[in-house]
Amino acid sequence: MIQRKQSVFLLIAVILSVLGLCMQIGSVSVEGLTVAREYSLWVTDASGGRHFTTWPLFAVLLLSAALSLYTIFIYKRRLLQARLCLLNTLLLVVWYIIYTALSRTIAPDASTFRVALAAVFPAVSIILNVLARKAIIADEKLVRAADRIR
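^ that's the sequence the OP posted. Answer follows.
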């Protein structure tokens, strides 16, 4: 059924992923002056120019949102749904690895990198995917137990 609690978890993960795509995920400042703003798709420098060096973040987060949305609608195939939740969790961990690497590349040695609120959204999505996977596995155990009773 679509109205299961894991569907709610996955829907919230989709919403957070889409918000993470649209919002600023970090900024670079030198001596208190912001010189660059990092988004999922581009970096805006102090002169207003855009550099698309962070496109892998956008691609991974977009894939994660699409995978979560797809996972909601394959509710009849619970084992595949659980595997896709695990894959989505791994994708979001890869997002953080890329985020860390790009943040070190964007910020020079004499600057300070500040993490924005939207950079926390994938972590919340990881937690929601783990909760959804746990609920899917519990549903599968319940269905198997009911099949044994018959």
